[in-house]
Amino acid sequence: MKKTFKRIIGVSLLMLSICGSSCEKAEVIGVFDKKIIPEPVSDSDEGKIETIVLHSTAMNKDMKTSVILPKTYRSQSQLPVLYLLHGFGGDHSVLINSIPDLQSLSDKYGYIIVCPDGGKSWYLDSPVDPAYKYETYIIEELIDFIDNNYKTDKRREKRAIAGISMGGHGSMYLAFRHQELFGAVGSIMGGVDFRPFPESWELKYRLGTKDEYPINWEDNTVINMTSLLSPNSLDIIFDCGTEDPYFKTANQLLHEKLIGLGIAHKYITESGMHDYDYVKKAILWQTKFFSDYFAK
Q: In the chain, which end has fewer C-beta atoms inside a 10 angstrom radius, N or C?
């Protein structure tokens, strides 16, 4: 398959109207069919952000993903990977645009950060719209591609997933359901219970209306999936701002539910709203958490 080279400039959204800056460092290095290997990071001692375009068989469309390589990439044979999921309406570049520390955090802790494009999907396979198969894409296609084309440590103990807002739902949703792939999971101000918002964030287009398809809403909300966990099956961290107008209560309830089930986890509350000011604080303790986990 022929490679393409171009620069991209992206502006995206979280759940609110939060815009990022241009992504000058992210270079599109090719459209791949799982057989073509990306170009290696340069000989410099600086990290690099690559943007791959992978064709999803499940959804029959090209999907962009940003891959943050730490400055130690060339000197290491295998590195852990953190998959980091954006919020509603964002794309693969929004977190890089909006959290300037991501490259330096990758450099500091020495692991790869992979930022997929989740659009407005809630990172699930929609039971009402067959065009949305984002769980299948990430679990069966993207992870396989990253593991086969980058120098990753393929063990579940060296693979983690985290997310922000809608991505916080997605990270826990995918990790709870695929504990054979992920050893740790994190959520930043995550939408861990979306049932109170039947008219928001296009949920009714992913799940059907709540009145017509109540089972879809019950079966796919993270707070109802804790029965999939057992003690020490996942290392878990999640947090939420104390002034978050959307998910403060949901995260507190998840915390209490996990305590009742005897599931060890780290739960952090910190002053903050549902915005990138809060995210920039939370990403610091989340990335440290995963560094400590990978070092076990």
A: C
Please give the C-alpha separations between residue 68 and each of 3, 83, 116, 158, 238, in angstroms, as whole numbers.
20, 10, 11, 16, 22
Whole-angstrom distance, CA of residue 294 vs CA of residue 296: 6
**pLDDT single digits (tens) 127-147:** 999 999 999 999 999 999 999
For the chain, list the domains and their CATH numbers. 6-294 (3.40.50.1820)
Backbone angles phi, psi at 215, to 5 degrees: -65, -40
Whole-number CA gyration radius for the chain: 18
Q: Tell me what pLDDT residue 45 has.
A: 57
Are 214 and 245 in contact, with CB atoms under 8 Å apart? Answer: no
Q: Is residue 62 helix, strand or coil?
A: strand
Distance CA(195)–CA(181), nearest Å, equals: 27
Q: What's the maximum distance between 2 C-alpha atoms anywhere in the chain?
A: 57
Check if the beta carbon of residue 133 is closer than 8 Å to that of residue 139: no
Quote the pLDDT of residue 291: 98
pLDDT attached to residue 46: 67
Q: Cα separation of 99 and 25, whole Å?
A: 13
Q: At what angle do helices 102-109 and 276-294 cross, to 10 degrees?
A: 10
Instruction: List the chain residues with pLDDT less than 70.
Output: 1-46
Tell which residue, 205, 151, 160, has the closest CA to residue 181. Answer: 160
Return the pLDDT at 4: 30
pLDDT, tens digit, for every residue of 15-64? Answer: 332 333 333 333 333 334 433 334 444 444 568 999 999 999 999 999 99
Round to whole Å and give the CA distance between 146 and 154.
Answer: 10
